[in-house]
Specification:
Elements (H helix, E strand, L loop, with lengths): L1 E6 L12 H8 L4 E6 L12 E3 L7 E3 L1 H14 L4 E11 L2 H7 L4 E6 L7 H6 L3 E4 L9 H12 L32 E2 L2 E2 L9 H19 L6
This protein binds adenine.
């Protein structure tokens, strides 16, 4: 999968994909994240990318030309399955959306800033609008990093244990069960005995019960 991210603050995106699972995905050739500095497409000597909004009002708006030029240049190189715009008024990001996006080949993610982008970008270029939650960030970069991480780890071959993403929280409309590691006894705080029993079916049953209990307690809204 190739993900092209268009950003006015590309430095914000340097670190998130260079560690841990995202790094491994890149090293295995499974995920290629390419970051584009919108400023390089800016207009005039000052490489302008934003301007005052028509009709007046506070706050700058990202101009259509730099974004259009960047998107069109990318689209001339390959076909894109989606042009995603990160925006607080987009559709709320969730696990089913991450699952669907992980099946795509080439994706552009546009990060908004200031008051947002000229509406014509959204109308004519953007195919999916995503919000990561009901709060406003100062830009779309951190939101884009969240989406790339959630999607990237689902690409087959990225996680070492192929099955482990299947047991993530939210994959079955259930939260994941609690997990423990050594020591089995930490100053009297014990690991549940069933996990030490070696009895696979019982462990599975216990995990399912715990998932159910946890979901009922914490997120009854996702329980089917
Ligand atoms: N840009 C600013 N806030 C955002 C949010 N909550 N989700 C996605 N993009 C954003």
């Amino acid at each position: 999968m190739r993900i092209d991210i268009i950003s006015a603050v590309p430095d914000l995106l340097q670190s998130p994909f260079n560690h841990s699972i995202m790094k491994r995905a890149a090293e295995r050739g499974l995920l290629d994240v390419v970051i584009h500095d919108l400023r390089a497409y800016g207009l005039g000597k000052h490489r302008q990318i934003d301007d005052y909004q028509f009709g007046g009002g506070a706050g700058m708006v990202m101009m259509i030309e730099p974004i259009a030029n960047c998107i069109q240049r990318l689209q001339a190189e390959r076909n894109y399955d989606a042009v995603i715009y990160m925006t607080p008024d987009g559709k709320r990001f969730d696990q089913p959306t991450a699952n669907r996006l992980s099946l795509l080949q080439n994706v552009i993610i546009l990060c908004g800033h200031y008051k947002g982008v000229d509406e014509r970008i959204r109308k004519h270029f953007v195919t999916i609008e995503i919000s990561i939650g009901d709060y406003v960030l100062s830009g779309g970069e951190l939101a884009a990093a969240v989406v790339v991480d959630a999607v990237g780890r689902l690409i087959p071959g990225v996680l070492n244990d192929e099955t482990s993403a299947l047991f993530d929280s939210f994959q079955d409309d259930l939260l994941a069960p609690p997990v423990y590691t050594r020591p089995a006894d930490y100053q009297g705080w014990q690991v549940p005995a069933v996990l030490l029993s070696g009895h696979e079916r019982k462990i599975e049953e216990w995990r399912y019960e715990q998932s159910l209990k946890r979901t009922q307690e914490r997120r009854p809204d996702i329980l089917k």
